[in-house]
Design goal:
Layout lengths: L2 H20 L7 H49 L8 H4 L6 H10 L9 H9 L20 E2 L4 H11 L10 E5 L5 E6 L25 E6 L2 E4 L3 E3 L1 H6 L4 H23 L9 H4 L1 E5 L8 H10 L2 H4 L4 E5 L1 H7 L11 E2 L10 E2 L2 E5 L13 E5 L3 E6 L3 E5 L7 E13 L5 E5 L4
Parallel strand pairs: 2-13, 7-16, 8-11
Antiparallel strand pairs: 1-14, 3-4, 5-15, 6-15, 8-12, 9-10, 10-11, 12-16, 13-15, 14-15
Helix pairs in contact: 1-2, 6-8
């Protein structure tokens, strides 16, 4: 099924699910309500499958587009022009080490297949006879080369796809070039008010209402993907550019660790995850089930000043959303509202957007399966961009690729985001 057909089917399922919800009223008997509930759940299960299929198709299309673009550039660079010289040579474009190294591998490691310029470029990448050594900053030939900068964009996109906590549309981002500690001053003056003044009496000056400041710190913790080795034959024969493909996969790995730590990190030698740092808003009566009233109580445990922020929203795992979809209010209306994909309107819960974050714990005794609040108060410190490095000579004739990322996270105001905790078993 094509991407267009999948999108059209998704739209039809959305309409059918809405019709099933709208058909349930106060006068609908229990048997019919149960039948419509089941129909709605079946439609939404199919809707979720279509969503995943669309996501896979879009991701595959993006990879294919990048591969076709690379093939186009390769064809243009090899296309002869007047005088028999290559287009790249005529325009003065310098060949890249990576292109020459691939040609060298594809030729069976035969230097005779390279011209003088290519042999010179390859020679610049030759290291000392030592097999293992440390990379040093500023010297490419001391250990490895960084993949082209445009790959970082794909990495960041992959990271966003795997969780909302690395998305600047959700949290507040602080992007720095260095990893030195950042101190964030805090103040909570919400419990302090002014007093009625009596004419002729001096103002109180006992310091009892002085503002109390605090401080949060953001460090720069480093995470790596470990090396992934791939063979010279795979680099030469694969229909895909293995560096780009593995770069996307490593970007997803970095995305998974970043989202997990920024969600449930304990703050000891790692980020203080938003679930861990959030304050208690509501305790559920049961250990394995939520109610609509409990979600309303959680929502209103967050001060209205925070609820006005454009970054105020819910976060929970996908299976928690499945349970929430079935909850109704006292008027027998579903509290979850389906969005309109055709108009680009997201789904909402009690009037607020939500983010699916599968690193938020699921519903179980003593867990915190739902958080709500103003996520602009959660600060994510990023040190530059994620880095993908390709090490060539150490694994010669094979290659190795690895990724690194530096980040930290902290909730600047614990009153801004609150959690619902399930009852103990």
């Amino acid at each position: 099924m094509s991407l267009t057909e999948l999108q059209e089917k998704r739209g039809r399922l959305m309409t059918q699910a809405r019709e099933a919800l709208d058909e349930i009223t106060k006068n609908t008997d229990d048997a019919r309500s149960a039948e419509l509930d089941k129909r709605h759940d079946d439609i939404m299960a199919e809707f979720d499958k279509i969503e995943k299929n669309i996501e896979r198709e879009e991701r595959l299309a993006a990879i294919e587009a990048r591969f076709e673009e690379r093939q186009r550039r390769d064809r243009e660079s090899k296309r002869p022009v007047s005088g028999g010289e290559s287009r790249g040579q005529d325009s003065g474009e310098k060949k890249e080490y990576r292109e020459v190294f691939y040609k060298f591998l594809a030729s069976g490691a035969d230097l005779g297949e390279l011209d003088a310029e290519e042999r010179g470029i390859l020679k610049t990448g030759v290291q000392s006879t030592k097999e293992f050594r440390m990379q040093t900053t500023g010297t490419n030939t001391a250990g490895g080369y960084t993949v082209p900068v445009e790959l970082a964009d794909f990495i960041v996109k992959s990271m966003k796809d795997w969780g909302p906590m690395y998305d600047t549309d959700v949290v507040t981002e602080l992007n720095t070039a260095a990893g030195n500690i950042i101190n964030i001053p805090t103040v909570d003056d919400t419990a302090v008010t002014a007093e009625k003044h009596t004419e002729g009496t001096p103002l109180t000056d006992d310091g009892g209402k002085d503002a109390a400041f605090g401080q949060k710190q953001l460090s720069a913790y480093v995470y790596d993907t470990e090396f992934v080795k791939f063979s010279m034959e795979l680099a030469s024969d694969s229909i895909f550019n293995m560096e780009s493909l593995l770069g996307v996969l490593l970007g997803e790995r970095l995305g998974r660790i970043a989202n997990r730590e920024l969600t449930i990190g304990d703050g000891t030698d790692d980020p203080h995850g938003v679930v861990t740092a959030s304050s208690l808003g509501k305790t559920a009566a049961a250990a394995a089930a939520l109610t609509a009233d409990e979600l309303i109580d959680l929502q209103h445990s967050v001060n209205a000043a925070y609820r006005r922020s454009p970054k105020t929203r819910w976060q929970f795992a996908d299976l928690t959303l499945a349970a929430i979809r079935k909850l109704k209010d006292s008027e027998n209306r579903y509290i979850w509202t389906m969005g309109d994909i055709q108009k680009g309107e997201p789904g909402t819960l009690l009037g607020y957007r939500y983010e699916i974050n599968d690193d938020v714990p699921q519903i179980a005794a003593g867990t915190r399966p739902v958080i709500f609040g103003d996520f602009s108060k959660y600060f994510v410190r990023k040190v530059g961009s994620p880095v993908i490095g390709v090490l060539r000579e150490r694994f010669w004739p094979d290659l190795g690729i690895a990724g690194l990322i530096r980040f930290d996270g902290e909730l600047g105001d614990t009153a801004a985001v609150k959690h619902l905790v399930m009852a103990a078993a």
